[in-house]
């Protein structure tokens, strides 16, 4: 049976193990979207992962969802990322940038723009906006047909900046209720043009975003994260098996490096998608945001079901040496939830590697 500690070929990269650090927002960038020296240290500490996928990075200012998140929509931001990617590579790691467009999960207090979405359907939730705290989500502005095509292209622009910044590739965030999944959704996407209605219409934005990234940096540097049937940020999807079978078929034709799938629905459906996908398949057993972090047993189960790689999210917060802990069976530390998004280095850089103490004679 395949082991978590076997190597794997991903495009031009040889991954030394099959452990992926999943993308997790940490809100440690500057107010204008610049990564910091602390972020370089944070990712370098975790460089023993087979692959790191960064926190969500906005591909445009319009796409920013949360305050203090980093961007990749200017040359200055790309330059600011170089110390981060250099630090990861110096420690022997590999890192993809996750490109995350918030769509309707955004607020003018954060980005200075009314958020855009497939349709003008307001999210019934409060969003953290920074100094003003939690505020109700505003009604988004529906993109015109022409604007939708342009919004897909920003993923290509950001992919170019990512490669300029030293990233090994990019992952499009098509999960968890953000813009790409909003187009896949049947309750947020109420369009009647080429970007809505039928399954073909609802997958079009995701496919065009992937095409833009592939055209910019090459298919072997592009992956996508999906959450079939996921309901984060009040999304709902009709015809989930048909929808995702069609989407994966279209993406496979582009030759994407991987799909990264959250276990958010029936396992039989995910196994069918695994069988239909001809390239690297990453499983995230943690699924939708919840109380249970991924364990080694979860990972081994999904490797046994045909996944090539397995991603760990929360386990990486307090265990920078997670690969070694999994290898040796060392206990996992628990992260302080109060420090997840508070900023600063506490609860970010101060989790130590496990020290193996020999038994007393």
UniProtKB/TrEMBL annotation:
Entry superkingdom: Bacteria
Name of one Pfam family that matches: Oxidored_FMN
Residues in NADH:flavin oxidoreductase/NADH oxidase N-terminal domain copies: 4-331
Cofactor(s) listed in the protein's UniProt record: FMN
Single GO molecular function: FMN binding
Keyword vocabulary terms for this entry: Oxidoreductase
Alphabetized Gene3D superfamilies for the sequence: Aldolase class I
Cellular component annotations (GO), alphabetically ordered: cytosol
Family that this chain belongs to: Belongs to the NADH:flavin oxidoreductase/NADH oxidase family.
Name by which UniProt lists this protein: Alkene reductase
Native organism: Streptomyces armeniacus
